[in-house]
């Protein structure tokens, strides 16, 4: 990883992603980071393992719920 960047963007929400993209298209060297292990900030969609970790604090959900890849839960309600 390089150690010099023109811009560091923290977070992977919609605003941060747009900003990062625009700056990189302008030729700036951008480091885009997030503290979460998923992408998308508040508007993310989580699989079962990520959802379980976020609300239950445990690393793995019970096996009887099925495969984690079978779940995709949006964190922002949509109509």
Instruction: Report the strand count.
Output: 4
State the end-to-end distance: 41 Å
The assigned structural class equals alpha+beta
Spans of at least 5 consecutive residues whose pLDDT stays below 50 are none
> Gyration radius, to the nearest Å?
16 Å
Strand order of the largest sheet: 1-2
Mean pLDDT across every amino acid position: 89
Main sheet attributes: strand count, strand direction, barrel closure: 2 strands, parallel
Percent helix, as a range, is 25-40%
Name the beta content range: 15-25%
Give me the number of helical elements.
2
User: Which sequence of SSEs, written as H and E, runs from N to C?
Assistant: EHEEHE
Q: Rough shape?
A: elongated
Report on the structure:
This protein is of the alpha+beta class. Helix content is 27%, strand content 15%. The strands form 2 sheets. Strands 1-2 form a two-stranded parallel ribbon. Strand 1 (7-10), helix 1 and strand 2 form a beta-alpha-beta unit. The longest helix is centred in the first third of the chain and has 12 residues, at 14-25. 4% of the residues are buried. The model has no long low-confidence stretch (mean pLDDT 89).
In short:
Belongs to the Rab GDI family. With 79 residues, the protein is an alpha+beta fold.
Question: Which terms would index this structure?
Answer:
79 residues; alpha+beta; two-stranded parallel sheet; two-stranded antiparallel sheet; 2 helices; elongated
